[in-house]
Amino acid sequence: MTEKILMKGNEAMVHAAIKAGCTFYAGYPITPQNEVPEQMSALMPKAGGIFIQAEAELSAINMIFGASAAGVRCMTSSSSPGIALKQEGISYIAGGELPCVIANVMRGGPGLGNIRASQADYFQSVKGGGHGDYKLIVLAPSTVQEMYDLTMDAFDYADHYRNPVLILADGITGQMVEPVELKDYKPILELPSKSGWILDGCKGREPHVVKTLFLESDDRLTKHNIHLQEKYQRIKDELCLCKEYKTEDAELFIAAYGITARVCKEAVDAARKLGYKVGIIQPVSLWPFPEKIFAKYKGKDFLVVEMSCGQMIEDVKLSLECKGKIHFMGCGGGWYPDTEQIVTKVKEIYGRS
Amino acid sequence: MKDDIKIAGHGGQGVVLAGSLIANAAMDQGLETCGMVSYGAEMRGGTANATVIISDKPIGSPVVVNPTTALILNEPSLKKFEESLVPGGIIIINTSECKKKVSRTDLEVVLIPATEIASELGNKKATNMVMIGAYIKKRGIIDIQVAIKTLKRVLGKKPELVEINQKALIKGAEQCM
Amino acid sequence: MEEVKTLKGNSMHYCTGCGHTIVHRIIAQLMDEMGLREKAIASAPVGCAVLFYNYFNMDIIECAHGRVPSVMSAIKRVHPDKFVLAYQGDGDLAAIGTTETLHTANRGENITVIFVNNAIYGMTGGQMAPTTLPSQVTTTTPKGRGNNFEGGPLKVCELLSVLDGPAYIERCAVDSAEGLKNTKEAIRKAFQCQLDGKGYSFVEVLSMCPTNWKMDVKSSIGFIDKMKEYFPLGIFKDVRNER
Q1: How many domains does chain C have?
Q2: Which of A58, B163, C28, C193 suits a disulfide with C4, CB 3.0-4.6 Å?
Q3: pLDDT of A1 over the 60 cut
Q4: Are the Cβ atoms of B65 and A179 closer than 8 angstroms?
């Protein structure tokens, strides 16, 4: 076993990014993700990369737009209200097909909300957020090790598909300290050459233009949209990250992602001791949503647990074609589930059915 | 085996380092561990608290609502956390800075004049180590020798601090003999 | 006209008498003269100049409204040996992108910003710009600027010149043969400032927009004189030799 060290989830993302060859970070302070810019400011220059504390979230995301167009692996991070501000730039980055990694360490909302952990930015992350028809690849870590592993992989997904990747974490995953193995970087996908589109001066070649405007009266923007949709379909066909826990003989399936899935795991063990056959389906890629995994269990009873007022539940219902009973447990504003509450809910569902 | 530990005190008492040492020692001993430090506005106003979970199985929720053990470094922390402990939990109190008595009767109480002990050893800042020593001995999950090794690793960059902290750790453990 | 390699040579979409055409040509001539085309990355800003890449024969990035300075800061940091040109209009630079402008200048990013100030929003059809003159009638100041808490013209050169970051700041106008000559020299100095690694350089160009000013070309040139009352020409900062 390789040596493990203890660190916060936020710090793990920084180490993973630098190991993966990220050489540009721009960000703005906001709790609970401040360890990311802080660690980046210390480690990025040592790794020969660039760190910029931007004057605003909009500036930070547009620096990422520029850095990605310039051809380097780049990353920004923030927490919910800050990610909301970045949406303009995210739409341009997705439209321009620029690879980059964005981390959202979610906190309570709406508005300024609070600084407790939350999962209320699910819709924003997987359904759009900014303007236009675009998709982000969205990955949801539930341990500090996954904060590391998924951040590292995110750079490969971004480059492979020329698409922004969002790490959707939360205040707890960002702040908690766990042992982590700082694995070396090895690409998990084929990484296409960027030389055909990056901006580095047109010496010896035709000029490159990075743009998202298609003013022409013909159907060029429509074609661009069709091209994007074809890419998204390819990602849907190829990318499905999901974990199952004790689903083999389960009668009731809990659907939960990120930190919530961990609490549910504890609850499943407790419920099984009481004789309830419960299992978990934990989506790790939230977009593409692991529809095919859910589809296997069409017609079964489900309990969706989220630290929101019910967002992922819509994708669960769609994947199950609304067959079977689909229950919900969750709340916004920094609500956090505990094992006992979940077990009580399981008992309730059993009592009812 | 699982222990949900709460460490609480005021800023400057080394609450964060204490949590880090317990978590590191648990890791060095091959146990699962997960820690959390209060952050943001919560840490303003002079109070600090950290939680560490140590277990021989993968850890579910990283949040500790009802600790099984509490290390209380000052009086406000006793007020804040006494009620939350599980019945039968262990509460270790730094009596140098907490004169108040534990009112619950269903807890195992360990009283240690940790700050005085640390001062006698030559550095008041080692209060946290005295408390950890007592914890290790009392709870019996972490091996004191592992903790000493961990201490040397964690303080690798400041070897001058190892000796006093090691002494404090041992002294704390002796209080629970 | 002589062939300019940095331009593609196609006809531009700008209106008759528009200053953008002139400023484009000055920039392209200088880039030819200074051999910058092949090492350049420029911005296409939101506004009339958004189709910049249709005319310029070099690497170009089209940016969201106001965000040019942030995008170009990043590109320059990634490619410090390349030539980075930010081209912006008044709404882009001094209204929606004021934050980016101010902080990019303050950081002293080693880029060159060419600011085309025509005191109006051109592409959207003649609304009030941050640099619209007092009493100037626009489609959103029907009674003239200043009657409804619109404030006065934002003086960007003056604002930026108090910062430590910038190395060179000058304001010119393309309303005459001499103005053109001065503008070209100012931009040349700004370009050289970046090539010498001296830091942020900024040239504001007072420029005509006869269409949205609702004037003929001749009157529009006269309007520049009025602009100069609020936007005096000259060098506002030059610390190139101190760096």
Answers
A1: 1
A2: C28
A3: no
A4: no
Give Cα C116 distance to the centre of its chain: 3
Question: Residue written as tokens 């109480």?
Answer: B109
Residue position matching structure tokens 């819709």: A123
Give me the domain span that covers residue B103. Answer: 2-174
Instruction: Identify residue A150 by its one-letter amino acid code.
Output: L
The structure tokens 């700082």 sit at: A182
In this predicted structure, the answer to whether residue A2 has a pLDDT above a threshold of 80 is: no
User: How far, in Å, CA of C32 to CA of C184, rounded?
Assistant: 13
For residue A338, the chain B residues in CB contact (below 8 A) are 61, 63, 65
User: Tell me, what CATH number does B122's domain have?
Assistant: 3.40.920.10
* pLDDT digits 0-9 by tens, B90-146: 999 999 999 999 999 999 999 999 999 999 999 999 999 999 999 999 999 999 999
Are A66 and C82 within 8 A, CB to CB?
Answer: no
Q: List subunits contacting chain C, requiring 3 or more Cβ pairs under 8 Å.
A: A
Count of domains forming chain B: 1
Using CB atoms, which residue from C58, C63, C70 is nearest to A207? Answer: C58
Which among C70, C72, C87, C100 is the top mutation candidate for probing chain A, defined by the most A β-carbons within 10 Å of its own β-carbon? C70
Query: To the nearest whole angstrom, how far is the Cα of B74 from the nearest Cα of chain A?
Result: 24
Of C188, C175, C184, C164, give the one whose Cα is nearest residue C26.
Answer: C184
Q: Do A24 and C103 touch (CB under 8 A)?
A: no
DSSP letter assigned to residue A183: P
CATH number, position A128: 3.40.50.970
Q: Which domain range does residue A343 map to?
A: 245-352
- Rounded CA-CA distance B31/B16 in Å is 20
Which residues 256-275 of A are in CB contact (within 8 Å) with B? 259, 262-263, 265-267, 269
Q: Is the pLDDT of residue A31 over 90?
A: yes
A residues 318..347 contacting B (CB < 8 A): 336, 338-339
Q: What is the mean pLDDT of residues C61-90?
A: 98
